[in-house]
């Protein structure tokens, strides 16, 4: 299990090549227990950067909340990064990545579609490691679960793993979710939930919990693929990811926070949430990638609280807003 660093808390067609001065841009249309302190001190940073100089890795979903932090930290550590986005023409996806230190010489942006295998091949080509983060997530009503969530999550994951295997990638770090561990209503009350626990698939289908279902089925498909194809896969299962946000567009978890500030009164289930900082999740991905002995699933949560306690804390931090309790 990965334990987060408490220092990082916060208030909460065919191929077409396009170039922009600076960042390279390519458009393709068609374990063991470890802690974040093991990442090293500032005195080791230069050595680490030199060691990683020239190593190329791919980050799918590079413009997202976790992905952007991961790209930044990988660049800081000396990696060369292939980061994927959905639309190279959307500055909300690209501009903040292009502005990162090291991006001018060591960042290439790729436009991909998770259901288009050839686009994924182009992004993964030439890399030794892949961080697969890209997967749809929404807090809104899902009208077509298979098209909007299940296919991109499951088939997209298999496409990325297939490309990694075909191209000889050494390790894939898959971003799953605590949602692939809970909900599991039939889990014994006296047994601690950990990386051995899986979300109840039938329960999710009955209740229309499409996001947990998509993450669970995608992760299970990944483990099956890894076993059959002998591919080195390690999984990170973050909780609700909050904290300092470095992208222009809000992700699902930050949207929940925003709606609370806006007076959201939709009924919420009686549940406990595990929270973790964006930077800590990104560091966790780097840890399991760089730690050769890392294997299996890694639950990444800094703290756990009841939803009502979370809402109360937000109300305390932002008294100027009318936040329902």
From TrEMBL:
UniProt keyword terms in alphabetical order: NADP, Oxidoreductase
Q: What is this protein called?
A: NAD-dependent epimerase/dehydratase domain-containing protein
- NAD-dependent epimerase/dehydratase domain ranges (all copies): 57-292
UniProt GO MF annotations? oxidoreductase activity, acting on the CH-OH group of donors, NAD or NADP as acceptor
Q: Which domain of life is it from?
A: Eukaryota
